[in-house]
Amino acid sequence: PGHRLPPGLPPSALSTAAAAISPPSTAEPYEYSAGICMKGVRISGRPLYLDMQATSPVDPRVLDAMLPYYISRYGNPHSRTHLYGWESDEAVELARAQVAALFNASPKEIVFTSGATESNNISVKGVMHFYRDKKRHVITTQTEHKCVLDSCRHLQQEGFEVTYLPVGSDGIVDLNQLRTAIRPDTGLISIMMVNNEIGVIQPVEEIGKICREFNIPFHTDAAQALGKIPIDVDKMNISLMSLSGHKIYGPKGVGALYMRRRPRIRVEPQMNGGGQERGIRSGTVPTPLVVGFGSACELAMKEMEYDKKRITQLQERLLNGIRAKIDGVVVNGSIEKRYAGNLNLSFAYVEGESLLMGLKEVAVSSGSACTSASLEPSYVLRALGVDEDMAHTSIRFGIGRFTTEAEIDRAIELTVQQVEKLREMSPLYEMVKDGIDIKSIQWTQH
């Protein structure tokens, strides 16, 4: 309300994910008559947004909660001598309680950080550094997010040892292999809850039981799980958990680390400073961002059931819609054990980069945003044993709270159109239609 559409731009040109958009400034690369031109690509309007794993729009209700802390209640929450500080501190503590309530924790176990990457670094490096005299070994999986894998590599350079567990073709870790990998000096097991690329849900409760049995701290990266699937840190025996605000319709640049108090888990801080957040994460707590994160968690708690139903229906509509019109469509990762908002598909006999380029009216990606600039096939899909050619054609569709049926139907139409167009150009697809088994062909090198 109150926002006028720029002249000449049809309402449909705006993605429904953006609740309200003001007219862009002249500095932005917009030409209304001919659509939008950016980075040399011209499209008729804003693409529809199906990349919810990369980030989500801020829920307008979250923005409403944040605004006062930018404009009138702008005190530093650590200022103890006046009202401005007190009211910001109160807002931060309320947010802490809102975050904790979403997964049955105590507000005292929440440390605010800049996001899941920082929380993962504090967890993996912080625990191992704290217990460095007794514990020298970490267990993780090959399909973790880059920031966990890179933290583990960092530890290896310092002389720690890391076991990178393989996953099955469904993307799920084998609990027997996990059990076998445990050593007397294992100091941490770090396994993510929901995979950011393929959406599979790991058997976190069972992993937690194994960790309890061997008395090893269990860390999980739950950035893609928070607010989407039920989490209970006690039931799952989680010692440390990394969270992010912008994956659950909250602001970017804020996250949290859950740290268990009983039995108490200790970490070495990764940043020194004024001792805020119990010394674990120094630096002024960004009140507006934290308020937004808290508000997003409260909304997620109320709407998780409803969102899940809606998103599951949209996911089935998308998958069935594509499969009804083309063959050779493979879902990457387990079908049963996955979060419905993440649908990672491979299209046989199509080159992925061309498919993404042709799908300019749909904002989708081929994997995580952190690795989207590389033309290497995804390391997550390689760990699943997906053939190189199929890994190259994977596309991740992310469905969320604001996705509409109309957007799903348009995405089906555009995807099918593009895949058919590329297959028409593909000599391999011709051969397959003629009944030739491509895998049996001996290609000669020239």
Automatic annotation (TrEMBL):
Residues 49-410 form the Aminotransferase class V domain. Pfam families: Aminotran_5. Its EC number is 2.8.1.7. InterPro entries: Aminotrans_V_dom, Cys_deSase_IscS, Cysteine_dSase, PyrdxlP-dep_Trfase, PyrdxlP-dep_Trfase_major, PyrdxlP-dep_Trfase_small. It is an enzyme of class 2 (transferase). Keywords: Iron, Iron-sulfur, Metal-binding, Pyridoxal phosphate, Transferase. One of its GO terms (biological process) is [2Fe-2S] cluster assembly. Its cofactor is pyridoxal 5'-phosphate. The keyword Protein biosynthesis does not apply. One of its GO terms (cellular component) is cytosol. GO terms for molecular function: cysteine desulfurase activity; iron-sulfur cluster binding; metal ion binding; pyridoxal phosphate binding. HAMAP family: Cys_desulf_IscS (MF_00331). Belongs to the class-V pyridoxal-phosphate-dependent aminotransferase family. NifS/IscS subfamily. NCBIfam families: IscS, PRK14012.1. This is cysteine desulfurase. It comes from Thlaspi arvense. The lineage of its organism: Eukaryota, Viridiplantae, Streptophyta, Embryophyta, Tracheophyta.
